User: What shape does this take?
Amino acid sequence: MAKKKAAAPSARPYRIAVIPGDGTGPEVVREGLKVLAAVAEKVGFAYETTEFDFSGARYLARGGDPTKPSIPVITEEEMATLKTFDAIFLGAVGDPKVAPGILEKGLLLRLRFELDQYINLRPVKLYPNVPCPLVGKGPKDIDFVVVRENTEGLYTGMGGVQYPGTPQEVSTQINCTTRFGAERAIRYAFDLCRRRASKKKMLTLVHKTNVLTFAGGTWFRAFEEIGKEYPDIKKDYNHVDACCMWFVKNPEYYDVIVTDNIFGDIITDLAAIIQGGLGVAAGGNLNPGGLSMFEPMGGSAPKYTGKNVINPIAAIAAVGMLLRETGNHRGDAKLVDAGNRVEEAVIATTPKMKSQAAGQMGHSTTQVGDLVAGAVRKG
Ligand code: IPM
Ligand code: MN
Assistant: This one.
């Protein structure tokens, strides 16, 4: 009797872990899932979702101390379960009742580190009819990608504080930089630059090598050496402060940027505002060989929570990224097609919105989700 063939990737349903999280997270996640359902039906792929209630509210309900980490935000068993999924869709992290750092470190950073999601991928694209704060710049000028190293640098938590609360207080926060970490981010960025449909074919390293000579040197040497393997890609370098200036003055200059964790954190918020704000900016925390997590860049927006006014476009765009990246990873063209369709539906929807700001869209959160889902069905 012939043995059963191993199932092809698309033969079983894709399993997506959904973490709505805090504040407006659940509202935007709901719209993302609405669009996911629409595109799955359109393209014809099977998936199932499992919701995880990790959040500030749950931390507090379980007796977590709001002033300092006292219990795990995610348990070991939950971590193990998460690892069995094909992708993670995250809404938002952050609760005003819980001190800063507890949920960020206990949930978001824990997942990034433990799942080795070493790339934070942030496409910066101005969609049609989205107001841009830069005078005279339009969609053809703002279309680049930031590759942020996502597991090292100032985010590792190395360092400490001595004599806190006294005049003698001393603190250190170590910028942990490894050749290994820089190298894998740089290599990913060169490869991305190569396959990206842009004529510029230029990778810009962003750092601060004139002051951070140690960490900057490691990045720069890795960039120069790896760059030799990519003769078709133009190599470019900007100091991070100058890069901020160019984002405002000449965003059309950029193609792909690679940078360390903290610089990437900062420049991608600036980048978000030139692409229309946190209501539209989506990102992926990628483990290119494993489990990746996708999220809207906006926070939990407590003041808009429960009002049906938050912009779900970023969360919907994150679903598009999730499908495209998972499709690429699994070699499933259908999923890649689905991701592209979601992006096209977003592009068809933004011109129908009055603004991308919460409460000013001319539509409610659910209506924007309906518009995108409708565009997917029509597409
Ligand atoms: C981001 C966020 C996070 C970060 C916070 C919430 C820890 O700002 O994804 O950019 O600093 O990385
Ligand atoms: Mn940030």
